[in-house]
Design a protein that fits this description.
alpha/beta, TIM Barrel, nine-stranded mixed sheet, globular
Amino acid sequence: MKTAATNAANERSPVKRLEFHMSYVCNQDCVFCSESVRMRQYQKRPLSYKEMVETITRKRREGCEHITFVGGEPTVHPDFLKLLAASKKLGYATLLITNGAKLSEPRFAAESLPLLDEIVLSVHGSNSKVHDDLAQSPGSFEKLWKALGLIEKAKKRPFVLTNTVVTQKNINDLVKTINVLAEHPVVRHCLVSNLAPDGDALLHYDEQVVRISELGRLAPQLVEIARSRGKIIRFFGMPLCSLGEAWEASNDLYWDSRTNVERATSHGQVTLEDTWNYTPKRMRFFPDLCAPCPAREKKCWGVFRIYHKHFGESELMTFETLGSQESPPCPSR
């Protein structure tokens, strides 16, 4: 189903990236899960293989070339491997966002890794105490590292990214986490994510959110750690100005347009809905302070609206000038 909200998108050229929310169950229970509400709503309405293969075939005809499997946890869907094989047969480049638990199983890894071009692993601490506490899943850190070991031994090794969602429970471990990841031979790209105010993260926002100024102060050190080891690092959900001299590592600068397909309810009927995202502005906005900023809607997509409601704009600034990515901007209050 295509909604009225996406009519404007239909007038643009087709996007290349498809994010397919194919699973509404998970084998872990992360305290900050942004998908928790939708999972509770649709976990009893799993997607059939027929629905999924018809969707990816249709989106391929529409011009999508890259598919991201999103959950819940995609790997626990009983038809994941079949759908992965069908995606490759259709000519998609494939990316899996996963907690890595299933990839710690040698047989599952052997069947899936040859068909995966990219993997994003959720890593929320440098050790089992921090990671397992946030995942609310004992043994999850151990499984994650087993998965990395199997990836390292694979004949066809996918491009491995990691995603670390920053909360009050792991902010003090963040430098160590990026150190550990940057030293791993398999990991090539680290994403550090500001807490997205959705799902359980929104329900427990006050007790989980980290101030963007605190994360911003760590950003230059994290960039140096990653780059000194030849790794890429990016920051999600952060206003450009909050990253200071590390502004070039803002994920906003590298955003690719995408189409999302996910469960939705329309007129009392559960269906699949297509939406389009041409910018990373979901749940974000520009306070009045940002009005004169030359980075607005060009290289920056603002602050989370809920964050601004809680903390205001005292941590934000405008850029007097914003040059190319080779020359740093000049901040001013």
